[in-house]
Amino acid sequence: MRREIPLVIVFLFGLFMIVQFFIPHRSFAFLYQEFNNWTIIIGIFTMVIGVGSLITVHYSKIRFKKPGWGYSIVTIVSLCGMSLIGLIGGTENELFLNLYRYGLSPVTSTMFSLLAYFIASAAYRAFRARTVVATLLLISAVVVMLGRVPIGQIITAWLPEWLQLQNIADFLLQTPNVAAKRAIYIGVGLGVAAVSLKIILGIERTWLGGDGGK
Amino acid sequence: MKKSGFKFLVVLAVSIWLTPFASFAEVISADSAFQSFPPMPIIVTVSDMPNDPGGALIVEWSIPDADSLTLASMNVYQISRSSNPDSEFESITSLVAGSTRYEDSGLEDGKNYYYRIIAFDNDNRLAEGTGGPGVPSGQWFNTGRIPILIMVVLFATTAIGFIVSAKKGYKFYVRPIAGIRAVDDAIGRATEMGRPILYVPGLGTASEVATIAAFTILGRVARKVAEYNTRVIVPNYDPVVMAVCQEVVKGAYTAAGKPDMYDANDVYFVTQDQFPYTAAVNGVMLRQKPATNFYMGMFYAESLVLAETGFISGSIQIAGTDQLVQIPFFVSVCDFVLMGEELYAASAYLSQEPQQLGTLKAQDWGKVLVVVLIIVGMIFSTFGWESFAAWFDVG
Q1: Which of A64, B34, B327, B381 places its Cα 20 to 30 Å from the Cα of A149?
Q2: Contacts of A206 in chain B (CB under 8 A)
Q3: How many CA atoms lie within 13 A of A168 on its CB side?
């Protein structure tokens, strides 16, 4: 029963979601919205489990003084501190907002800014003319990069329009690139349909855990 | 003298005759001269909105008696509504000239509604018409989605057909996918090096197909890891995903006959914030130095940050995502990448179960059908027969 009940629930609700897509009537739209609300509510309850897991892991690190246990103290203090400030003063109070604006937000932006350097290092390694395909990649990358900046327009302004870098870059992005993207989208769309069908029919059961991993 | 006298008499007579009209002319202004003509009729039709949940009507109108000059002179259409044609109409909106259609919503199903439309030229009422009743109602079937229904039925029928064939023993050929074949080797490498495996299930929720595909691969990885006595670390972005991952890993260890090896602290929740999660996973990579990193699921801007950090820490990396924009980043950094549907095919590929392979073949034939339809539509559209392509426009 431990496996059968979830499978029956998935089958019934999956079937409802398929049928609901084709029935615009108000009653079905209401049920659809209700079920989506249930998902949100269940998600909020699982947040309790998530926070419990977080505290358990870091408490274990502090207790057994595992490497990096000092950072675990920072994590737990930050978690408890922000929660208390938000619960007591509300999420609109000045201290809570300042901690977010001047604490979390700059740190998040810093992580995001690393992306620029990582793109440069990844491009340096990836854009090498080792094979024919890699050479094509390198040429396309150079053309698109130059075509997107003013200097690319300046250096090819004397050429016929169809040979100018920004037009070649636009062609590369709007024709072969879009064709490849759409091909992948078609495959992804069919893949989603296939996986959804497998889950609804109970063929795909890995998500249940247990021996579903075989 | 006689002639001038006669002329005087004529002018006097005409003046006396025109006097009543003259006093009337003082009242009539140039503008109000138009109001002496009745407004032109507007033909108003009211119909139920098709394929909707209810509570909406479509109001359309035309002024057949108006020439282009008159139509151009109309500035605004005032639309009023009432539930009774004999009672007062309530103004609901005004539309600019040129409009011929209005969609009214928030109405009560089953109730009669009448609409009055008045066309104005500044303050002058040029045309007027009343139409109705229209009765809003919800539809029980969206006729605009018939093409989707046909494709769903066709796909499901094909998939079931192939599943039945597979169960009867028919062997399907599945092309080798390098990323999936490398999973076992990558796990073996981690075991030889005595380092853990890091499995990142992405930033999606458990309702997303890519995340479900990640569960499948995690189950496979965890089972192999249990057999090889290696450790797998699974930091999670979503608490629901964490709960499922814990069940999957625990079940895999149990199935491998080593339930005591399972450590709940290795499958844990980090945070539901994108870059703090990325920072935490990067920290795991740089401190624990896993031999193999798996990135399976939905990824966004953090994909390259994760992959580059994994490269720096010297891990072999296998990624799989259906996020089109992130695939190039993974391709340029990772050793193996499962692109789009290859991630979904992993389940069938790893298990080799007939039922799973059957749906894989249905996917392939679905792609063939889509390509055929695209070619047919392209040929038809080239010759100006747009109706074929328009039939697939479901809005």
Answers
A1: B327
A2: 212, 215-216, 218-219, 248, 347
A3: 20
